[in-house]
Write a structure and sequence with these properties.
The chain is α/β, with parallel strands linked by helices. The chain is built from six helices and 13 strands.
């Protein structure tokens, strides 16, 4: 399946950082002000990377104990997961992976040199996970990673399930959700709202520009701020 966004929508969203997307959603979808984004800290392994925009492929993992599946069934499950990454919805995809080991999440790393390269070649641009990652210097070039932690071993890491609803760092994600992510975190963009989000972000930027311009001028005072805030309120 192909990307459902127009080129203008995709380029417009990618020109924004994730906090700006969150700000815009406060205007376009105020009921989502306290949900739909990561709320706990994640490690940005490559903070210099530009934002990514992709469709969620969801999965759960564990690593504290071995997989209960026989070797052949575990292999078949893994191959089915890879087919889901490649063909399970619009592309590009992004893996949203929840570690369900509770207090022991991050015990072993699913993500490293091999998995980032395999996923990238299957059309996946990155991962957002509350599990751990490793092989930072050997990961696929340009593969976006937000993770709960960094650790050296994969321990008994294995897939538990995929394609369902997961919760990563407080963000509840269903398969196929449109995800915008950068070094700050990730947020879900509601279906069909891309153009409205871009327009709202532009409006916010125009309003903020008035206040920022005033704040950077010599002689800035609360009285000047008051006038600037009034001017900003008049921008629609």
């Amino acid at each position: 399946m192909t990307d459902t966004l127009s080129d203008a929508e995709r380029n417009g969203l990618l020109a924004l950082d994730t906090p700006t997307i969150c700000n815009a959603l406060e205007l376009t979808a105020p009921e989502r002000r306290a949900k739909g984004f990561t709320v706990r800290p994640l490690v940005a392994c490559f903070p210099q990377m530009k934002p990514v925009l992709a469709y969620a492929r969801t999965a759960t993992i564990r690593s504290k104990e071995p997989s209960p599946l026989a070797k052949d069934k575990a292999k078949a499950q893994r191959l089915a997961y890879f087919e889901y990454i490649e063909k399970g919805g619009p592309r590009p995809s992004i893996s949203i992976m929840q570690d369900i080991d509770g207090d022991d999440r991050g015990f072993g790393a699913f993500w490293g040199e091999v998995q980032t390269n395999v996923h990238k070649s299957l059309g996946c641009v990155g991962t957002v996970t509350d599990g751990c990652v490793r092989d930072i210097d050997m990961m696929a070039d340009g593969f976006f990673v937000l993770a709960g932690s960094i650790a050296p071993s994969h321990a008994w890491v294995h897939l538990v399930d995929f394609g369902g609803t997961v919760s990563v760092a407080g963000m509840v994600v269903s398969s196929g959700d449109l995800i915008h992510a950068d070094r700050h975190g990730a947020v879900i963009i509601p279906a069909g709202s891309a153009s409205k989000v871009i327009e709202a972000a532009a409006l916010i930027a125009r309003k903020e520009a008035v206040i920022l311009s005033a704040a950077k001028q010599p002689g800035f005072t609360v009285e000047v701020l008051k006038r600037a805030m009034g001017e900003a309120d008049d921008i629609h």
